[in-house]
Amino acid sequence: MITNATLSKAHSAAPAVSDIRDIKPPLEISSGLAWLWWTLAAIAVVVLAAFLWRWCQRRKVNVPIVPPVPAHVRAQQKLAAALALLGQPKPFVTAVSDTVRTYLEERFDFRAPERTTEEFLRELSSTSLLVKEQKESLGSFLASCDLVKFAKYEPGEKELRELHGAALRLVEETKPVEVVNPEFRTRETK
């Protein structure tokens, strides 16, 4: 038989075990409206993104598009600027020659700047984009430029002005012609 004395001995002999635990904090029970707030926030973000996108698109439309400067206008501007180098034959001739070669490349898609004069004139002879007189004028122009650039020829101011005039004539003769189309009342470029 078990008496109280036996039980008290058993409790005192056994290590003390804690059979009482601390109280857990209360659990938060979400209301049924939390999903509604998250949904409204997501919709607000989407609407804001849509307004920002439309605003950016409108700003792009309002930016004026500047048309590119035509090749003949750029060439004329560069030739006018080259006149400042008239007192220095080699830099002047280099500027005028490079301007004409760049113009021909932009206007007719020739690979003029990367080629020697002979290679360029050979390609030019097989094309019908320039008339015979223009090809001959260009050939003598480039030969005169090569004399100054590579053979150390020092031309006078009169010869330099003639080279400049030949370059301007070539640009003027080969620039695109604007044709007014009476049917549509628009301008077309040949």
What is this structure's SSE topology?
Layout: H1 4-13, H2 34-62, H3 71-82, H4 89-108, H5 117-125, H6 132-150, H7 157-174, E1 178-181, E2 186-189
Antiparallel strand pairs: 1-2
Helix pairs in contact: 3-4, 3-7, 4-6, 4-7, 5-6, 6-7
Describe the structure.
- The chain contains 7 helices and 2 strands; from the N terminus they run αααααααββ.
- It has 190 residues and is mainly alpha-helical.
- The chain has a domain at 71-180: Four Helix Bundle (Hemerythrin (Met), subunit A), CATH 1.20.120.
- Strands 1-2 form a two-stranded antiparallel sheet.
- Strand 1 and strand 2 form a beta hairpin.
- The radius of gyration is 44 Å and the shape is elongated.
- The N and C termini lie far apart (125 Å).
- The mean pLDDT is 81.
Name some characteristics of this structure.
elongated; two-stranded antiparallel ribbon; mainly alpha; Four Helix Bundle (Hemerythrin (Met), subunit A)
The count of strands amounts to 2
* Major sheet: arrangement of strands: 1-2
Q: Write down the overall mean pLDDT.
A: 81
Helix content: 55-70%
Overall body shape = elongated
Rg calculated over all Cα atoms: 44 Å
Question: By helix and strand content, what is the structural category?
Answer: mainly alpha
**Largest sheet report:** 2 strands, antiparallel
Order of helices and strands: HHHHHHHEE
Strand content: under 5%
